[in-house]
Amino acid sequence: MDNWEKVFETSQVVRAEIARSVLEENGINAVILNKQSSSYVIFGLCEVHVPVEDAQAAKQILTHDATLRETE
Question: In this protein, which residues make up the domain named DUF2007 (predicted)?
Fold first, then answer.
């Protein structure tokens, strides 16, 4: 995934999906890399990645999004 940067990570798949959705609603392409073990979902994280050129804007959007402020 050259030219892509991680902008968000979580242990909850649904929060990663929300982050991806928020970014796409703001015109930023985003993908989720699910690094959780398929046998034991308590191990590993889901990461949201965006193109490098959109990373700064994506981080700012996610920092200010009310749906993602809740701590895990």
Answer: 4-63
